[in-house]
């Protein structure tokens, strides 16, 4: 998966990292082309070798967490259909699409996490664009009302411009605690959404979490950023000294 540069997303990502007093919000939105890079080709080869029915082999998905939490009496999310048009008892995904989702996770969380062993039942197909927007808005409004109010319209306009929301299938990643990159103590909520536009061959990945102010993880991202900046400055200074010594 190839990361696509977006100045609009960069600006929104800066605004998606803020403190509310009780917690800290850390989020980012990234756009990826479904074009394979080196690491993707290895994953593709492995998944293709495991697929007895080829990359169109259907794998079972889990029900969306948002639907389970709401305890909706009706099954709002659509059923996938096989080539013969028959519905399945559970929603499904073919291996090629699953490959794109796993590849996106690997690219976004590299080098800290590797999701190559992720299974289809760790993912869900979301009911609709409106359903996902409402879920995201509910989380962020509840945690950061005023700060998110100023950002909301710009955020969704940027996502729509990049991926054409109403042309998308939307998936979510809902792993168990052991596999969750946000499984640390003090994480109040988190979400990982994939907006997949097959026509554009592109995925927009929206990931966000809220960390309690009482958590040991609070402020960790700022510390890591500061350490990375210090390391970068040290490398630049060292390179400058080497250049001066050479002349």
Automatic annotation (TrEMBL):
It is found in: Nucleus. The keyword Transcription regulation applies. InterPro entries: Maf1 (IPR015257), Maf1_sf (IPR038564). One of its GO terms (molecular function) is RNA polymerase III core binding. GO terms for biological process: negative regulation of transcription by RNA polymerase III. PANTHER family: REPRESSOR OF RNA POLYMERASE III TRANSCRIPTION MAF1, REPRESSOR OF RNA POLYMERASE III TRANSCRIPTION MAF1 HOMOLOG. Element of the TORC1 signaling pathway that acts as a mediator of diverse signals and that represses RNA polymerase III transcription. Inhibits the de novo assembly of TFIIIB onto DNA. Belongs to the MAF1 family. This is Repressor of RNA polymerase III transcription MAF1. It comes from Rhipicephalus microplus (Cattle tick). The lineage of its organism: Eukaryota, Metazoa, Ecdysozoa, Arthropoda, Chelicerata.
């Amino acid at each position: 998966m190839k990361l696509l540069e977006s100045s609009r997303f960069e600006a929104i990502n800066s605004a998606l990292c803020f403190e509310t007093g009780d917690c800290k919000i850390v989020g980012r939105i990234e756009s990826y082309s479904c074009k394979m890079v080196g690491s993707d080709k290895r994953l593709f080869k492995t998944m293709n070798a495991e697929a007895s029915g080829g990359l169109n082999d259907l794998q079972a998905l889990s029900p969306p967490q948002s639907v389970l939490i709401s305890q909706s009496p009706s099954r709002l999310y659509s059923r996938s259909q096989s080539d013969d048009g028959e519905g399945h008892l559970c929603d499904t995904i073919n291996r090629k699409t699953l490959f794109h989702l796993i590849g996106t996770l690997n690219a976004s969380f590299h080098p800290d996490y590797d999701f190559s062993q992720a299974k289809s039942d760790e993912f869900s197909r979301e009911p609709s664009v409106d359903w996902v927007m409402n879920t995201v808005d509910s989380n962020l409004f509840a945690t950061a009302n005023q700060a998110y109010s100023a950002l909301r319209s710009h955020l969704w306009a940027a996502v729509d411009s990049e991926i054409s929301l109403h042309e998308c299938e939307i998936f979510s990643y809902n792993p168990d605690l052991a596999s969750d990159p946000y499984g640390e103590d003090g994480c109040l909520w988190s979400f990982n959404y994939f907006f997949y536009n097959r026509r554009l061959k592109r995925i927009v990945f929206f990931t966000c979490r809220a960390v309690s102010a009482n958590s040991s993880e609070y402020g960790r991202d700022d510390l890591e950023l500061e350490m990375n900046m210090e390391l970068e400055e040290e490398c630049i200074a060292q390179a400058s000294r080497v250049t001066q010594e050479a002349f």
